[in-house]
Amino acid sequence: MEYKPQEIERKWKERWRETGVHRAHGKSGKPKYYCLDMFPYPSGNGLHVGHWRGYTISDVWSRYKRLHGYEILHPMGWDAFGLPAENYAIQNGIHPRIATERNIANFKRQLEEIGAMYDWEREVNTTDPSFYRWTQYFFVKMFERGLAYRKKMPINWCPSCKTGLANEEVVEGKCERCGAEVTKREMDQWMLKITAYADRLLDDLDKLDWPEHVKRMQRAWIGRSEGARIRFQLVDHDGEIEVFSTRPDTIYGATYMVLAPEHPLVQSITTPPQRAAVEAYIEEALRKSNIERQVVDKTKTGVFTGAYVQHPLLDRKLPVWIADYVLMDYGTGAIMAVPAHDERDYEFAKQFQLDIIPVVKPLAGETEELYTGDGVMYNSGPLDGQTVAEAKKAAIDLLAQTGHAEAAVTYRLRDWVFARQRYWGEPIPIVHCPKCGAVAVPEDQLPVTLPDVERYEPTGTGESPLAAIPSFVHTTCPKCGGPAERETDTMPQWAGSCWYFLRYADPHNDKAPFSKEAIDYWLPVDMYIGGVEHAVLHLLYSRFYVKFIYDLGLIQFDEPFQRLFTQGMITLNGAKMSKSKGNVVNPDDIIAAYGVDALRMYEMFVGPPEDEAEWSTNGLEGVARFLSRTYRLVSAHAANPSRERPALTKLRHRFVASLTERMEGFRFNTAVSAFMEYVNALSSEAKDGIDRASLETLTVAIAPFAPHLGEEMWSLLGHESSVFDATWPTYDEAWLKDDEVEIAVQVNGRVRTRLTVAADIGQEDAIERAKALPELAEWVEGKEIVKQIYVPGRLVNIVVR
Ligand code: ANZ
Ligand code: ZN
């Protein structure tokens, strides 16, 4: 029979819709398995074959798990608030709500096309008031616990998107969304205190089955540094300068101090003769981004303030400088400079001819003028002779005696700027009352709905477009009933994605974000599949939210995603597929030509799923031909299978064993090769007929990859039920044993014993097995092995001296 994929696919999609085979009821009594995709932003461009890779991987995995007897939760939804959706709407002159609705419809059509087993009854949409009511609810909970707070501070500002940005949204000094250079702007901001969770976010990474590189990125982002806070008394001036140092051991080598140009002390300590130079320098520094300021090999710049501090342990006065290599938002915004042992301080001291006093010498070798390694203390009074590690502790103890220092930990992680001056987001559910201050909107009055407006473009004044809608702004204070104004900032686009995966458990609940029963059954997520670009954004934020919700007592787990898989990108001619590069392969075209099963199968075949892979139309055609051959083979034998014979049984067990191993190892590309080899092998047996077990095994095994074809072949084999109600095939070890041969085991060319091995055993294994033989000990023990030889199928020879 001819393989007509489009016909088969249409038929089975319809059938699935009728029977609801993909619904997750949670009542089957089977163990659950929650396999989650990172839900997409429904952009105007639709999905391309690069996006489909992740969706296919997760669908193959969900179906595979289902065949192992799990009840599967495999949901889908829309992360539809935020800058991308809004920028698209503005560019195309369509209201974001309408643009979003349209884009969702197109995305949904495409995702249904893929034949994924999504339970569409559980679809969530972050822009739906019934959803963001709970996004606002969690904000209120944070506010009540002091974790959401307002602060005036200089924040990242994108002049093109006309909004504040979180640190995580600034990539190499540029706006993550539009690429514009990010500047600083001082504004009142809503912040979330993610730093309160820094230690837990760091420590709990150890319990996760995540790719090591993602954990590494999160660790670096949280950036825990251990050291000390040390205070230096100002000379002829009240007050002191507090620094954070990871090297308190080098205290005797401190020769000058540096403040960040923005440091609040700068104004008061600068002496009149230095004032003009200091002012000019500050102005210059404020124009630079943190990234520019941290460039390692640029010429160091700075200005002397005219002030001095007293060294806490020595009769030494240290000049106080300002320099832009010290950042205001790290540590205390001030350092003690130790030019002999810190590279930046060294360059600065050279530049401005400041003292360099070495206090650590290497354990071996010559002392160098700049030495940043481990070693032994000298020039350091009571610390002399100690190692760096010992001296770190001893220095803190010493300084602590006079109240000049204590041990301290600093994080790179900053609190999360959680406000956008944009229209398309969840309104922050706060009312500003002249009497009561910031008051949360009571839970029973949520959601604060986003008003439908004519003008949604950013204002650029630093105020959200919502501020221009009097009917939205003017309200009464929930506490005192007096006139008050609503907060007009909206939440950042990450707000909904921080907890959406919890809502899938119970998406229609209008009393609570989810019921305890549903959340206890379905969560946590067992497998999360998506792009690595979220390593420090969504994947950190949602861990923070889950820990917070755990602390509220609403859930019993404190990590959302047990296992994470990040798929590689699909490229075309070496370039990332993207609309802006004009190199997008549209799945709709491919489906029309080859069918969706071929596309899915090719997405899996294209390369190791975690690696970047290059799209090739030839490769796709090859896979399409393979599916056609599979269909012809099964349809030719389905009606009258032959009797089973050993050759077929052996092939089948070996196929199942190698396929299962590849599946478990997430090596889907080689799993597809296993299918190809198996179908080839069956084809060469076909003249003597093929038995039912072989045909059924092939059909069930291929179904996760090519689900429509799987169903079709299953029904050709006479089954009424869905192939996804079948069970993943098992194998018997006995059939895996290779043909065996007996080989000679020699020592220095003389046969000492014999050994039975698999005929196709490799050299290393053969030698390993031979050496492990106890009867060989007498000849080799205590001797030096100089050579080991394996002659396949014949002998192992061990040459000793
Ligand atoms: C004295 C010292 C001696 C330092 C030495 C280093 C080496 P991490 O590992 O990143 O935490 N530092 C502290 N605050 C800073 C700021 N706001 N801007 C720029 N640099 C700052 O690095 C901590 C070290 O970076 C601190 O330890 C401090 O210099 C510097 F041989 O203090 B150190
Ligand atoms: Zn009030």
For the structure shown, list the relevant keywords.
binds zinc ion, 801 residues, seven-stranded mixed sheet, Rossmann fold, 35% helix, 5 domains, 32 strands, Isoleucyl-tRNA Synthetase, domain 2, alpha+beta, leucine-tRNA ligase activity, binds ligand ANZ, 26 helices, cytoplasm, Leu_tRNA-synth_edit, single chain, Leucine--tRNA ligase
Structure, described:
It is found in: Cytoplasm. A motif ('KMSKS' region) lies at residues 576-580. Belongs to the class-I aminoacyl-tRNA synthetase family. Its EC number is 6.1.1.4. This protein is α+β, with helices and mostly antiparallel strands. It folds into five domains: 27-124 and 497-571, 3-Layer(aba) Sandwich (Rossmann fold), CATH 3.40.50; 136-195 and 415-486, no CATH class; 224-411, Valyl/Leucyl/Isoleucyl-tRNA synthetase, editing domain (Isoleucyl-tRNA Synthetase, domain 2, Alpha-Beta Complex), CATH 3.90.740; 582-734, Isoleucyl-tRNA Synthetase, Domain 1 (Orthogonal Bundle), CATH 1.10.730.10; 738-800, Ubiquitin-like (UB roll). It contains 26 helices and 32 strands. Strands 10, 11, 12, 13, 14, 15 and 18 form a seven-stranded mixed beta sheet that branches. Helix 2 links the parallel strand 1 and strand 2. The termini are far apart. Bound molecules: ligand ANZ and zinc ion (ZN).
